[in-house]
Permease of the drug/metabolite transporter (DMT) superfamily (Anaerosporobacter mobilis DSM 15930), 298 residues
Amino acid sequence: MNTNITLDNHKTRGHLACIFTIIVWGTTFISTKVLLRSFSPVEILFIRFVIGYAALWVAYPKHLRITDKKQEIYFAAAGLCGVTLYYLFENIALTYTLASNVGVVVSIAPFFTAILGFLLLKEEKPHIRFFIGFGIALAGICLISFNSKTEFSINPLGDLLAIGAAILWAFYSIITKKLSSFGYNMIQTTRRIFFYGLLFMFPFLFIMDFHITLEPFMNCTNVLNFIFLGIGACALCFVTWNYAVRHLGTVKTSVYIYGVPVITAITSALVLHEAITVTTICGIVLTLVGLFLSEKRK
């Protein structure tokens, strides 16, 4: 009885962790938009993860002792897929295709996660309701992204990079599920992932537009936005997301990604005073219905 209660508590916390994470991730575009006035995408990416890495050391200043050196491969793979390559693919895709395209395509990550979870982790075969929910949620996300002010445009390279980003996030979810089975502290696990993410990011700094000067940091707005992205969206949210994966599984956690465009649309209206059209409202409703169907088995 007590075991069941404990499991239910962990699952409830897992769902709350997912909700918190997508709320924060859905609002990060505002901070990124502000920072893009003074920094390049790769500069923002690197600085926010450096801040996140430092914040995790402050939060839990204990060295992670690996019991099996082979486990290091999983930490490195998680850092490469979920930090370095995912964000680089997404940022580069934005230079070749529309932001709305990227937003929609990246949102198919739960589909790849479900397939990979079944094939690699031998998780339960995705139920028909998952695929129905996926279709409904994707239709809603399309309505949110391609509103009356946005033209639809197919850009093969950019869209393929966005698909690559979705697949990379699916692999990251699978790897973090494996990492959770090792039983390490979640903050230490996330910090180790960030370490490898930053390590693999270094070569790209020399071939991309990366040149940091002190002048932009004299702007208080830039500093506050970096703190939000580094501590909130990176350090805190990666911990809560990894916690959710540990207790809910890869598929149940990944479907919450459908909610990010919903939060983005609502935040745009509240903060940037962008109009919410009837099309957007319909998209939000469809996305939430799809999320519910994908999440619930019974």
In short: The chain has a mean pLDDT of 85. Residues 132 and 293 are 7 Å apart (CA to CA). The chain has one domain: 2-295. DSSP finds twelve helices and no strands in the chain.
